[in-house]
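REQUEST ID: PR-0412
SUBMITTED BY: lab tech R.K.
PRIORITY: routine
TASK: structure prediction, single protein chain
INPUT:
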Amino acid sequence: MQSEKFAEFLGVFADVAREGSFSGAGRRRGRTPSSVGRQIDTLEAYLDTPLFLRSTRLLTLTDAGEALLVRARQILDSLEDAQQELASMKGAVTGTLRVACFPTFGKRYVLPVMGELARKYPGLRLELDLTERLADPVAERLDLVIRIGDMADSTLIATRIATQTRILCASSAYLERTGQPAVLAELASHCLIDKLHGADLLGWADVLGQPSRAASSQPVFACDDFEAMRLAAREGLGIGYLPDWVVGPDIKAGHLVQLFAEWSTQPCARTGIHALRALRQPPARVTVLLDALRAHIGRPAGWALDAIEGDGDAA
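STATUS: complete
OUTPUT:
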């Protein structure tokens, strides 16, 4: 078997292992299941060992298949890296752009930019992992991971793309019903919108000087989704302490009212939004995404309630 054919067959094998079926791999490659099956038969004959245990319902990797899959992924990744490195030297925007970020931020700001790039660069493929976990660009072979908050020391390259400011806010209906707090200490007697899991991830302890749930005897709406927390504030369920990129547009439109605007100027209420990458010299697809994302967000950011942003462009 010629080397270029072997690489192609390894790709088919990896797709079958990933999809768990010939039909799934065929859909990914635009081929019929029978065509994919013949290629696997040829690969097994060439290697003189079965790679899959086949039944009428599913395919399962043999021990030899498991071992080959590890090597196949390494080989295919190396080939893709080489192709993309050569393409980036020519400034070509091609390959697969893999990005991970928070779900709400990804849907609001990253996805529209990806749509723009897809229309501009037909040779570009896009993957967006919407996740709350701290994705690892190295282990997960991601081009970029967008993180919000203080950056721990690491070997990753961080590019600041914007600033996040926490905003205290509530709906007019809620404030009419309960009265508007005059001082921060009065927040403890109000319904507070908080994070469902994690140790005070929204930072209520900074505002109240103690853990939010311990400070409040009133019902607290808890959720793990920023978009849902924004809607909860608009519905009048309570007072939110949410990022300006989530609630800034609502406050500008009058759907929410900002409380204690001076609090948002405190250092603890502000943090950076960074794009992390492993490669010091990123491929062209990464550069165009970063440029387009910063242009889409604006400077100052379109969500900002003041002009004091201080967003940096340096890595």
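NOTES: Residues 212-217, 307-315 have pLDDT under 50 and may be disordered.
REVIEWED BY: pending
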